[in-house]
Amino acid sequence: MALIVQKFGGTSVGTVDKIKAIAEKVQKFRSAGHQIVVVVSAMSGETNRLVALADEMQARPDAAEYDTIVSTGEQVTMALLSMALKERGCDARSFTGWQLGMHTDHSHAKARIKRIDETPIRTALDAGQVAVVAGFQGITDDNRISTLGRGGSDTTAVAIAAALKADECQIYTDVDGVYTTDPRVVDSARRMETITFEEMLELASLGSKVLQIRSVEFAGKYKVPLRVLHAFEDGPGTLITVEDHNQMESPVISGIAFNRDEAKVTLLGVPDVPGVAAAILAPVGDANIEVDMVVQNVGENNTTDFTFTVHKNDYERAMELLESVRVSLNARELRGDNAICKVSVVGVGMRSHAGVASTMFKTLASESINIQMISTSEIKISVVIEEKYLELATRALHSAFDLAAV
Amino acid sequence: MALIVQKFGGTSVGTVDKIKAIAEKVQKFRSAGHQIVVVVSAMSGETNRLVALADEMQARPDAAEYDTIVSTGEQVTMALLSMALKERGCDARSFTGWQLGMHTDHSHAKARIKRIDETPIRTALDAGQVAVVAGFQGITDDNRISTLGRGGSDTTAVAIAAALKADECQIYTDVDGVYTTDPRVVDSARRMETITFEEMLELASLGSKVLQIRSVEFAGKYKVPLRVLHAFEDGPGTLITVEDHNQMESPVISGIAFNRDEAKVTLLGVPDVPGVAAAILAPVGDANIEVDMVVQNVGENNTTDFTFTVHKNDYERAMELLESVRVSLNARELRGDNAICKVSVVGVGMRSHAGVASTMFKTLASESINIQMISTSEIKISVVIEEKYLELATRALHSAFDLAAV
């Protein structure tokens, strides 16, 4: 008998029939003798409907009132699922954020969890009930409803699993696990049995949008075993866990991620003096434009070349800002390119294996793909290349690192 | 400066634009220096949408989960109205049932209020905020959401007004007050300046569907001055209050009510023995059919005639039940009639004035309207007549009692 936290997202509970199907799945786990906490999102479309109402009412919606409105979506789903469980003869009880004691700070719309009362959910579980919890929401210490921000239901699930020391936190999605790369790009992409938290973080931030990054960090911090599964198909999914030091030989590389949403901005011939990086990036940050990769190279005549990437949506604005920076810094030239992509190889095995970078660069060279930028972390190497080579590069790397093999 | 509780129903907050219009109205009262508590219902249609979802999930919806779902309707409205007020520069704060401390018993879907914490709302009012309250909902002592039943928002408003000792409780509706009778039937029907709680109770129960009966009882019990007003038109409305003994001459009759939703069932020639009334009405009650008027007359040969009225919707079922009762009691004949109506004259002045009944009966006789049943209370006389005479009888009585005069 295990204690399992299960989370179902908006599309998994998007209709009455889907909620009934989820109830059937939950009941199976319960009937197998497990204690079950289910965390649910709002029915798909519902949060957008509520946000639209709030937006019509106030130019800049009051954050506390906004949270009061959008939190009703999850409140409805949790009660509907409890009903569906009871209709099947499976006792259940629903909990809003305030009912279960999900205490957060006052940062409405992006609140952070401070502590969780164990008692309400424990009492329900001990009484043999399935505890059905509204994801995404909490309560502040002045008794107002808060929300954790979009995708916060994953965080709710992990936080509850951590608080209750659950045996596993299962995140049900519309994919059956985490793949070595996107199966739509590489036919031989393989579902991974396990992956480490660190690898998952790098893969998530690089575009494998299976899990909310914040919930993975949370799970890693509290060592909550996290499993990604398909909501409506059977299968073991992918277990995200701490690095397994007992495993004799972990694969060097776990997966290949890519991102086509970035654009590149380059200032050439910038005077190479202290503070120049800040002078370039400060106005970009002030304009709320997020910068991803940053590369600075030595140039000639005491100048340097400075390149960074931003989201394609921010490209035009970044170029405008940089033109005035170019003038004020007396840099030689501003160049931009929004037909690029980023491809990354990720793997904890990289730490103990040399030669990953050289294999990557050789593989791309053999396909005549020019590398425009390189950035590395302890368990990841990312390159920026022309966008048209994305599929070719991903397939070549997937094959070079032998990821299709079990 | 007064403390005023204002209640707006579902149609008054049915759209974003209407909520904004309500905000403007509330702000005017606030700007005049009054302290304001606003109680709101769900946007019209919303409660039905939520009920339909719940009904799809469970054959007999779990009452606590059901309340959890339907209460979200008011939660959304209150936050939207708070936003609309803030957008106008009028500070506001919303309160769900649990946030304001509206404690109820465990009778989900028809919960009764046990007590109200004064502090949360007082604190908001003292801080200069408009307190915007979700009607219809409360919290049980095991921390679950309860609802007061349909129309419960009126009760919420009156209960809060009583708890805070408000100067007035204003119920905004789609009519501009309580009339001497239905203006669609009698052109000269007149809006009353004031009416007593007792009269309002008799008028409400007889079909003037302006206010929830329960809220009028509540207001009468706690002597909360209650005013009915139009949500989107200016005007003084009608004040419902305790009997004004200072008024030199209150009108004998205040209003004429009618009801076309009843049907009549008669058992003729029932053996006149003790317990026969119970034998007739028990199976009707067991079948959850509500009985309104009951009349028993002395018959001949130790038999009696027994007549009662039920809602037209229950007529067929009542006739079926009574046929088996007729057989078991060995009564002579069963008769039914669903082409009847009930017309009532109501007025506290009746207590001290003789002759009201005779004026009523003479008036009907002069129009050749036959009276089929008569029932009286201290401040009301009701008659059952043929349905086709409803308008004629109402107009004749309205004129006979001189109700068009101020």
From TrEMBL, chains A, B:
UniProt-annotated binding residues for substrate: T47, E74
EC supergroup of this enzyme: transferase
Bilayer-crossing regions: none
Highest taxon of source: Bacteria
Presence of the UniProt keyword Iron in the record: no
GO biological process terms, semicolon-separated: homoserine biosynthetic process; lysine biosynthetic process via diaminopimelate; threonine biosynthetic process
InterPro entries tied to this protein: AceGlu_kinase-like_sf (IPR036393), ACT-like_dom_sf (IPR045865), ACT_Aspartokinase (IPR054352), ACT_dom (IPR002912), AKii-LysC-BS (IPR041740), Asp/Glu/Uridylate_kinase (IPR001048), Asp_kin_monofn (IPR005260), Asp_kinase (IPR001341)
UniProt xrefs under CDD domains: AAK_AKii-LysC-BS, ACT_AKii-LysC-BS-like_1, ACT_AKii-LysC-BS-like_2
Pathway note: Amino-acid biosynthesis; L-lysine biosynthesis via DAP pathway; (S)-tetrahydrodipicolinate from L-aspartate: step 1/4; Amino-acid biosynthesis; L-methionine biosynthesis via de novo pathway; L-homoserine from L-aspartate: step 1/3; Amino-acid biosynthesis; L-threonine biosynthesis; L-threonine from L-aspartate: step 1/5
Record EC number: 2.7.2.4
Database matches in PROSITE patterns: ACT, ASPARTOKINASE
One function term, GO molecular function aspect: ATP binding
Phosphoprotein is among the record's keywords: no
Keywords, comma-separated and alphabetical: Amino-acid biosynthesis, ATP-binding, Kinase, Lysine biosynthesis, Nucleotide-binding, Transferase
Positions bound to ATP: K7, F8, G9, G10, T173, D174, Y179, R184, K209, V210
Sequence ranges assigned to domain ACT in this UniProt record: 265-339, 345-406
Catalytic activity field: L-aspartate + ATP = 4-phospho-L-aspartate + ADP
Cellular component annotations (GO), alphabetically ordered: cytosol
Assigned protein family: Belongs to the aspartokinase family.
Name of the protein described by the UniProt record: Aspartokinase
Lineage, highest ranks first: Bacteria, Pseudomonadati, Pseudomonadota, Gammaproteobacteria, Oceanospirillales
